[in-house]
Structure formats: C-alpha cells, structure tokens
Design goal:
single chain; about 260 residues; alpha/beta; 11 helices; about 15% strand; binds 3-methyl-2-oxobutanoic acid
Length: about 260
Amino acid sequence: MSTLNLPALRKMKQDKQPIVALTAYDYSFASLLDQAGVDIVLVGDSLGMVIQGHESTIPVTMDDMLYHTSIVSKGLQRSFLIMDLPFMSYATVERALDNATLALQNTGAKMVKLEGGIDQIPVVEALTHHDIPVCAHIGLKPQSYYKTGSYQVQGRSRKTANHMLDEAIALQHAGADILLVESVPHLLAEEIATNLDIPVIGIGAGSGCDGQILVLQDLLGITPGKVPSFAKNFMSESADIRGAISRYVDDVRQRKFPSAEHSFS
Ligand code: KIV
C-alpha cells in the first residue's frame, strides 16, 4: 500500500472520487482508520472538547497537538496526516513558520491546518513560500467561539456567501493546498468546490464537496453533550467500531453521506 500524498489527493478531485477524512487523536484509532481506507486523518484541535473536556478548542496548546499528532502518526501507513495549528499559534507569520516547522519535523504530519480567511493570507503565503502544505479552514471557525458565543451555520445571506467564495479563491491563490469548509449551506459549499482546483473537504457542508470529514467521536456516537446536527452516528447501524468506520468510508465514497438530513440549506 502506498502512502497518499498531495498530488494523489488532487487527482482524486480531478477524477471526482470522493475523499474520505476523519479525525483521530491516538494510535489505536489511527490504525483502525488507516486500515479502513480513510484517505486523510486530521488531528483536530477538537481534541480540546472530545478528549480534554473543554467547552471549546481554545485551551488547546501546541504541546497538546504535537503529542497527539505524533502518536496518531504511529498508526498510519497510507492515510495523509494533517495537524491542526491551535489557537494563536499562527497569530504572526513568524509564529506560524516556527510552529508549522515543529509540526512537520516532529510529528509525521504532512500538512498544517489553520482557521481563517482573508486575514490569514500573509500566513498562508509565507508557509507556501517555504513549501509547507496548508489546509485552510473557513465557514464556522471554532477558534472564534469566545467572540461568537455559538457554533452557527455560516454564509446564509448572499453577501456573506459571496464573501466566503472570495475568501476561498484568495486562499487558493495564496497557496492553500486543501480547503476545509465547516457548517455552510450545501449549495454554497458546492459552488466553492466547483470554483476551486484544490480539494474542498466539507463538514456540515453537504455532498457537493470533494470530500467529507467528521469528528470521530460524533461518528461513534460517544460525544458527551451536544452533537452537531450534521453529524451521523454510524454505530447505530453497525455491529462494532470497525463496521461503523467502514460504513462511513463506503457512504462517503458513494456520496450517500451526507444526505439532506445532515446538510444545511
Ligand atoms: O478540529 C477539528 O476536528 C476540525 C473539524 C472541522 C474536523 O477542524
């Protein structure tokens, strides 16, 4: 089995083959995801909520991310590994370069992910200038939770939708290699995916994206507290954890997930 790389992920988009992504935070689950054929494994800063029990992702530190990404990496043979840059770790170009270097040199991650649109263009350009692969994350940005006070669908008005499309194009132009779009109406996400050459991975963004991602705990139905309405518990239709992960992989590949029930209009 060969390791997936960025050109292979780009080719999947060109071939209209849906990309399957999931989060993981440890070695055991990373191995299961890899064996199930998950293409992208993200060590998300969602670990602050589902592993550490915080109310948001904001308390997560670089040390937390480096630790979890390095243990996830041990379980992967084929999947492409992305590490989230946590809150404030890319607040300046210098910090972003330093922290992305730590991620790529110490964890096995092949790409860093950061939240933000137009404001992050200088950071994306600087990382790209040094050949550091970047996944940009737009739409709902969980690291803004203390400002927004909620996790709401983004881009519902024509004005905000147009702005998000402009941001997506600008991020690709700045060098982003993958775009993650969270909690947006499905038609907007589809418009973004159609207008971009880079793979667009959606979460709560409908089936028109080039790929899908979920938080692993949501898929397994073990998230304590409130679960986003776009998430689906695949355990309810499966005998065991391996079955649930395989079902998710199959449903994304066949564009059965997300259905309208797990999308926003
Ligand atoms: O931190 C995370 O898990 C994320 C999700 C959108 C997948 O960014």
